[in-house]
Amino acid sequence: MNESFYPRFLAAVKPQRMASVYRQRNGERFLYFRYEPGMITRNDTPDGGLFCTARDLLRFCQMFLNNEGRVLARESVRQMLREQVPGRGLGWALENGGFAHAGSSGAYVWGDPNTGLVAVLLIQYSA
Prior knowledge:
Layout: E1 4-5, E2 21-25, E3 28-33, E4 51-52, H1 54-66, H2 74-80, E5 93-95, E6 98-102, E7 107-112, E8 117-122, E9 125-126
Parallel strand pairs: 2-9
Antiparallel strand pairs: 1-4, 2-3, 5-6, 6-7, 7-8
């Protein structure tokens, strides 16, 4: 995953590669976020602070399907995909044998161990 960054490391990213995020309020669409090279962001938490490409997200989800133990220990992956509380693993929503996670800006990833399929949606729009 060579193209995933927390905001403080975004200086290495070309601004034209950063998508703007739009939201809707009272039926009106508005710009919610646009990356500016000079901005200072201190939100280095995974709940809205990680910038990633579709390819890197695909690799991340594929790691959970393959569970080869090269990045995370096999048992760690098993525990993350095990229901810890109803419908939730560690960082994942669990449903129908699959796992999913929705990002704060309209991103959504989903994996199905039964079929080996992974889906990555980078919608960049949230109503």
